[in-house]
Design goal:
single chain; alpha+beta; Glutaredoxin; two-stranded antiparallel ribbon; 18% strand
């Protein structure tokens, strides 16, 4: 398990922004994350015990990933993230590759990270970090919507992006402002959710430990 927590790594990202970003830019980012926490509709979020919705994801290297296929021989772990250029995602996914993927591989449990970004743009993050798990497109946010974890940027964030001539829907290839909140799921062979953690603040994400613990419980494997 990594000696540096994901929380610490993301805190370092925010600290770097405090040192280098313009105050207005930093405050816009902080306010957006606070708005998402305050507006979170937790009742809509997927929860442990819920049936997992059927899905089909497009792995960036061409494979089609389905609920049935991923859980055919045991539990599966699914991470939802924003997009390949997201700075926090470029910290979280390599962390999972180091701190989670090897342990899951030893247990024969698949790990999939999914974003709505189209495959030809999403593949970049897998290649850049040589990720040791599958990275896939949730095209048109179909799964994210079923899980109840999508959000839309607030008016201030949208206005700032438009002023710079940018639009997240163009970057991702979806044509909309919808993005999934950081989500970690463990799905059992019975196709029910065994563990679910959703964070509306993208600088707060699930550590490897609780995910691995839930997997071991699903497999009835004693903790190390």
């Amino acid at each position: 398990m990594s000696t540096i927590s994901l929380r610490q790594l993301l805190a370092e990202l925010h600290a770097e922004r405090e040192r280098t970003w313009e105050p207005a830019q930093l405050q816009l980012n902080i306010n957006q994350r606070l708005d998402l926490v305050e507006a979170a509709k937790t009742a809509r979020w997927v929860k442990a015990g819920d049936p997992a919705p059927a899905f089909e994801l497009e792995e960036v290297d061409g494979e089609r990933l389905t609920l049935e296929g991923l859980t055919a021989k045991g539990p599966a772990v699914l991470i939802l993230f924003r997009f390949a250029g997201c700075p926090a995602c470029n910290i979280a996914l390599p962390y999972y590759s180091r701190a989670l993927a090897p342990h899951l591989a030893a247990l024969g449990v698949p790990l999939v990270a999914a974003s709505p970004q189209i495959p030809e743009r999403l593949v970049e993050i897998k290649r850049r970090h040589d990720l040791k798990f599958q990275v896939a497109t949730d095209r048109d946010n179909v799964l994210g919507r079923k899980l109840g974890v999508l959000y839309t940027a607030n008016a201030a964030t949208q206005a700032a992006a438009q002023a710079k001539g940018t639009f997240i829907g163009d970057t991702i290839g979806t044509g909309t402002w919808e993005i999934p909140q950081a989500t970690a799921l463990v799905i059992g062979t019975d196709r029910r959710i065994k563990f679910a953690d959703v964070s509306p603040d993208w600088l707060v994400r699930t550590e490897a430990g609780p995910i691995l613990e839930a997997v071991r419980e699903a497999l009835a494997v004693p903790a190390e």
